[in-house]
Amino acid sequence: MKRKPEAMGVSYSSEPEQKRGSGASGAPSQEDFSVPLDILEEIFLNLPPHQVVRICRLVCHQWKAVADSESLWKERCRREGYWIRDASKIPKDWRLFYFLCKKRRNLILNPRAEEQMRHWHITDNGGDRWKAEGVMAPHPNEAVLKNFVTSYGLCRKTQLIDLGAEGYNPSFMDHFQPDIKISDWYAPRWDCGSEYQICVQLLNHRKKPIQTFEPETVYFDQWNDQKWCQMTHVFRNYGPGVRFIRFTHGGKDRQFWAGWYGIRVTDSSVEICPAGDT
């Protein structure tokens, strides 16, 4: 008699088909897949996470219970270093927390001017236009060595992020509404006054705004400390329908000097985050 193949390290019985299983068709019963829960959890912890969700949890009720268990995903977070920053904010869904942490990344392309103006759509290019150059003052993040700089006329640039194309499908966004964190760094020249603007919008499938973050323009006087500043905002409970994010920023100098004496921007980011980790 031919030996049956093994699945997930669990052997099928070698008994005849009619003696195996609970149904007349001889299909394997739940008992055929029975494995001690602690061993089964350890097996799942060593499998790719998407395989656990898409395949393992469909095998039987026992496997589904382990694949959906809080202990499995909490332990997976611990092993891979995904942990909450505020211990008082315990995730309601550890599996969701795990996948959001694993998928988290900056959705802005070329945020530090390392590729000149590539990936940015310029909406305003006043004065001597946008320019990419090295930072004048050290950035708090030592990896940031370049920035975009504006001129004496208004300069603004934008990126449109397609959430579906980035792997965040409509049903996920509508049901879970994960936190969306934006961040931007800006700094003036010490010898020239300047101004800074930012506008970030959550858009529906028609690219119409659902929610907008647009703080007042920030003004710097001449003879300032040239210090880097960070602008941050977290979108929460924004409702269903978000399909795109439009990120726009820029500014100009206030002295009307030829050249590039306006506001500097760099290290921009848009991230989809688990709640409590923003």
From TrEMBL:
GO cellular component, as recorded: cytoplasm; SCF ubiquitin ligase complex
GO terms assigned for molecular function: ubiquitin protein ligase activity
Cross-referenced SUPFAM superfamilies: F-box domain (SSF81383), Galactose-binding domain-like (SSF49785)
InterPro entries: F-box-assoc_dom (IPR007397), F-box-like_dom_sf (IPR036047), F-box_dom (IPR001810), F-box_only (IPR039752), Galactose-bd-like_sf (IPR008979)
Annotated stretches, region: Disordered: 1-29
Signal peptide start and end residues: none
The keyword GTP-binding belongs to this UniProt entry's keyword annotation: no
UniProt cross-references to Pfam families, sorted A to Z: F-box-like, FBA
Annotated GO biological process: ERAD pathway; glycoprotein catabolic process; SCF-dependent proteasomal ubiquitin-dependent protein catabolic process
Keyword Transport in annotation: no
SMART domains to which the protein is assigned, alphabetical: FBA, FBOX
Keywords: Ubl conjugation pathway
Stretches assigned to the F-box domain: 29-76
Ranges of residues in domain FBA: 97-274
Full protein name: F-box only protein 6-like
Protein species of origin: Xyrichtys novacula (Pearly razorfish)
